Amino acid sequence: MNAHVPAHAAVWFEIPTTDMERARSFYGAVLQNELSLNEDGPNPMGMFVARDQDSVAGHLYPGKPAVAGTGPTIHLSVAAPIEAAMERVTKNGGQVVSPVIEIPAGRFAYCLDPDGNSFGLFVQ
User: Fold this and answer.
1) pLDDT in tens, the chain (124 residues)
2) Is 51 within the bounds of a domain?
3) Are 111 and 95 in contact (CB under 8 A)?
4) Strand, helix or coil for residue 47
5) d(CA 75, CA 101)
6) What is the domain-level CATH number for residue 99?
7) d(Cα 4, Cα 8) in Å, to the nearest integer?
8) 38, 86 Cβ separation under 8 angstroms
9) What is the DSSP secondary-structure string of 50-101?
10) How far apart are CA 54 and CA 56, in angstroms?
11) Which of 111, 113, 33 is nearest to 78 (CA)?
12) Total tally of structural domains belonging to the chain
């Protein structure tokens, strides 16, 4: 049996929210990119900005988040300095739950959005 080795380990992400406009505003402010509202499907979606169709991206959707800090964590790219993005998290109703962590690939910090979804800020 041959192992499947994909080009990208993750290809799409979805983040549940109880308040679409609040979540779009929060992530738009933190990431400094407005999330467009797509209402073409059965549910409205807040679309994250990606460079092109080959980029990994995702959306917000109306749903029930996991208990605060217990769900999966998606790391989202932000412009340096990461400390400025961390300030935008708290200023917009989220919570920073770790200090900046340095690894060979870059710097990141764990956070919670206003719904309690776990996410990371990442700067290469």
Assistant:
1) 678 888 878 889 999 999 999 999 999 999 999 999 999 989 999 999 998 888 899 999 999 999 988 899 999 999 999 999 999 999 999 999 999 999 999 999 999 999 999 999 999 9
2) yes
3) yes
4) strand
5) 13
6) 3.10.180.10
7) 11
8) no
9) -SSTTS-EEEEEE--PPSTT-S--EEEE-PSPHHHHHHHHHHTT-EE-S--E
10) 7
11) 33
12) 1
Rg from Cα positions in the chain = 15
Domain region containing 89: 12-123
Beta pairing partners, 100: none
Rounded to an integer, what distance in angstroms lies between the CA atom of residue 65 and that of residue 29?
A: 20
Answer yes or no: is 75 within a domain.
yes
Residue 33, domain member (yes or no): yes
Separation between Cα atoms, residue 35 and residue 1, nearest integer Å? 42
3-state class (DSSP) for residue 11 = coil
Are 40 and 108 in contact, with CB atoms under 8 Å apart? no
